[in-house]
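Suppose a colleague, Dr. K., hands you the sequence of a protein chain of 481 amino acids and asks what its three-dimensional shape might be. Before reaching for any lab equipment, you can write down a predicted structure in token form. Begin with the sequence itself:
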Amino acid sequence: MIETLLLPLDAMPDPLPLPGPSGLRGAFDLTISPPGSKSLTNRALLLAGLARGESELRGALIDADDAVVMRRAIEALGARVRVAGAEARVSGVGGRWKIPPLGVTLDLRNAGTATRFLAAAAMLGPPGAGPVTIDGNARMRARPIGELAQFLTALGATVEWAGARGYPPLKVRGGEGAVAGAGEREVNVGRTASGQFISALLLVSPFAARPFRVRFSEPPTSPSYIVMTMELLRRLGFRLSGGALDREGVLVQGDPAWPGEVLPGFALDIEPDASGATYFWAAAAMRPGARCMIPKLGPDSLQGDARFVDVLERMGARVERSPRGTAVIGGASLRAIEADLSDMPDAAMTAAVVSCFASPTAENPSATTVLGGLRTLRVKETDRLGALRKELGALAARVEIMETDGGRDEALRITPRSRGAALGVGEGNAGLEFETYDDHRMAMSLALASLKQEGVRIKDPACVAKTYPGYWADLVRVWSR
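The predicted structure, expressed as tokens, is then:
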């Protein structure tokens, strides 16, 4: 069975059987290096594609599906990308895409980050350019983008719907009306369906000649990702003031000498993916005495998911933090907690699986965990809230979706079966086969159940190619160290 997890993704059985807790030989001590951050790689690829001259991205997410989609898209818009190992060299277009008069179509499949960022970046076409058509697969055509389109229209872009209004495919045309002119331009936003809409605006705003302000009428969605975008822009030398939680919002100064020295080529080291790290930190937390170190992911990380270790610490794990990396050590048992995960929604599925194995305490005899701030999970690669309720029902006695904040947000309430006891084959369950809904994070998080439950099988194991092609080879090290 261990050898099966080392097969190429396209050669793996479907469903994929995983070893169980009986195959674990005591507490493991591992160092795992996940691939580069998807969030940072896609932001950096877009900026490198728009830069003047050559940029070097080191440690980037190169061969995963989402990164391939973004690379091909910026190449279709005129940038050139050369890849060697985990390094990408990008020759940018100097601030304006090379879009032909008849336009160009970008098939972004189910890559939500690329879709949102490129829809905004489509404004940066030369005079007389045709539209950029943003399209994807069937799931992407069901993921809303109407709020972002409204913001782009307010900035002077032209947006046409090629299908259902508010959803891809859409045609975006920019030109001088979207990037030139005098005076400060402002967009007012509330609580959007995705924080990526705000990041998309911030990423393209420095390439306009006019100062650009995003003003928040209420706290924005997923502010940690907006902060990530702002800090990356600052590291590359752009001038920003304000913040994601400030009343005045965020002001980005454009280049009045457009299209001059907008952004020269740059060199950037990409952090390991903190979302990918959560699975291995959680694996250690679920095994008393086990330890997992993620190097190059320390307290100064730009990624909100890097703070998932704080959640595990509250659940009973021990955390070692240093500039060289972060390690989690499993405690004697797992505690149920209440946590707001709005700053780390991609880690919510990891936390949900871990919660299924929490133990009762005097303060919480039912070991019920409540994970809040999860509204955005409805519009990810799948409806992750609905998927978690269905799949975790096999692990937990009760999984409930609750409305919070007067119906403006949602939470998961998870009560383990048998007061936190691990499930076993002898309890009338010959094994668990998990559906993954073509969602990489569902597959990777649900696989953690195999540390506590025999007979776990994961359907469509190749879906991890979206962000972590080597996931199964890294996970098997838990058993084969």
